[in-house]
Design goal:
globular; alpha+beta; six-stranded antiparallel β-sheet; 18 strands; 321 residues; 7 helices; seven-stranded antiparallel β-sheet
């Protein structure tokens, strides 16, 4: 996945003539460029810097503001808390982004911390081409639009702005906060990631197998009573339960599984067999669907992880027998 411009972090190393007019007084002049060293001989230092910073996992926010009665928003993960008393936050905006020109001292802006199911909204506000999503809905607080359904909301007023290389830094005093229950949308290494709460089977998997599987999976939502799989049907995918619970019914045995559980994995490893159980959703269920081909690719690239998975599945099969 290409990283949208709004996801980029500040990158230093190029000479900049001076701080842009109107941006705070913390620096009278930009520092002189210095050599940026990398561990890879001949590698592009700025690219290596960006990739290195990408190893820091973050949440995803949408920054919003109103200009001339028009709502403007952009996706950003360059957001941090600064102080509890007074309540201060900091955002970093690319100087080429339109939002940069809209913010100034005294201007209010909103921060909406996105929930895991709002990935498409993130893409929309990042300006990703070809994204087809419904029009976003907003709730207005202190004249500031906030994305409806987000995990958390903040409204702040810009009290200082600073030069930040190819970005501008805006310090905001928070005037309103709200948070709810849910799972955050994560961004790491240039792509979205999933939070798996209370993992059971996956907790025992090596990280080198877990990460490719989670990254390859496609999120699916099931309504109460809807079948994830039926006995006898072709087993070409497994499911990792993210939220909710499922009922598993097999001959002579019935049980429930919650977040972190994997269902359908044995059949996926045996292409000649059909499903051995009926699995249905209890309430609304969110699950990651991983196909046989995706699983094979992950196992093929990590033979030691493949052996570990076999041991885990064998142990679980004995428990369920």
């Amino acid at each position: 996945m290409d990283v949208p411009r709004e996801f980029e972090v500040p990158v230093h190393g190029a000479a900049i003539a001076g701080a842009p007019e109107g941006i705070g007084e913390s620096l009278d002049a930009p520092p002189e460029p210095e050599l940026l060293e990398t561990s890879e001989l001949g590698a592009d230092p700025l690219l290596e810097f960006r990739r290195t910073l990408g190893m820091f996992a973050t949440g995803v926010t949408v920054i919003t503001a109103v200009v001339d009665e028009q709502v403007h928003g952009m996706t950003a993960n360059a957001f941090m808390s600064v102080s509890l008393s007074p309540p201060l936050i900091l955002i970093s905006i690319d100087r080429k982004a339109r939002m940069n020109a809209m913010l100034g001292e005294g201007v209010r802006f909103g921060i909406s911390v996105l929930e895991a199911r709002q990935r498409e909204l993130s893409d929309r506000f990042a300006g990703r081409p070809g994204v087809q999503t419904p029009e976003p809905r907003f709730e207005v607080v202190h004249g500031t639009p906030l994305v409806e359904g987000a995990l958390a909301h903040l409204v702040a007023r810009v009290v200082r702005s600073y030069w930040g290389g190819d970005h501008s830094l805006f310090l905001g005093r928070v005037q309103y906060v709200r948070y709810g229950e849910g799972t955050p949308l994560l961004f790491h290494g240039g792509r979205y990631e999933q939070v798996v709460r209370d993992p059971h089977v996956f907790a025992a998997l090596p990280a080198e197998l877990l990460q490719p599987l989670v990254a390859a999976g496609v999120e699916t939502t099931f309504a109460d009573g809807e079948a994830l799989m039926r006995r006898g049907e072709r087993g070409d995918a497994l499911y990792l339960v993210l939220e909710g619970a499922v009922n598993v019914e097999r001959p002579g045995r019935a049980f429930s599984l919650g977040p972190g559980a994997v269902v359908g994995e044995i059949e996926v490893l045996d292409p000649g067999s059909g499903r051995i159980a009926d699995v249905t959703a209890v309430g609304e269920v969110r699950a990651l669907r991983v196909t046989r081909d995706e699983l094979r690719a992950a196992l093929g690239s990590q033979p030691r992880a493949a052996l570990a998975l076999i041991e885990i599945l064998a142990s679980r099969f004995r428990e369920l027998s």
